[in-house]
Amino acid sequence: MESLLRKVQLFGVMNDSEKARLMEVAGRCPVHRTLHNNPQVITSLIVG
């Protein structure tokens, strides 16, 4: 099985609730959702 490693780095002073909320939002981003839906990868060659 292929795997991707996602690292999230937060800057600034935040409490645990704020950190949890940011991680929740990160889990709902379009790229994250696409990767979790086992997308079909279509590759095409463009010459020139």
Q: Can you walk me through this structure?
A:
This protein has 2 helices and no strands. It has helices spanning 16-27, 30-36. It starts with 15 loop residues before the first helix and ends in a 12-residue tail after the last helix. The mean pLDDT is 87. Helix content is 40%, strand content 0%. The protein has one domain (12-48). The protein is an all-alpha fold and 48 residues long.
Structure characteristics:
48 residues; mainly alpha; 2 helices; 40% helix
Inertia-based shape: elongated
Low confidence ranges = none
What is the CA-CA span between the terminal residues? Answer: 35 Å
Q: Helical element count? A: 2
User: Share of helix among residues?
Assistant: 25-40%
Kindly report the average pLDDT value.
Answer: 87
Our count of domains comes out at 1
User: N-to-C SSE series?
Assistant: HH
- What's the number of extended β-strand segments? 0
Quick rundown:
This protein is mostly helical and 48 residues long. 40% of the residues lie in helices and 0% in strands.
SSE arrangement:
Layout: H1 16-27, H2 30-36
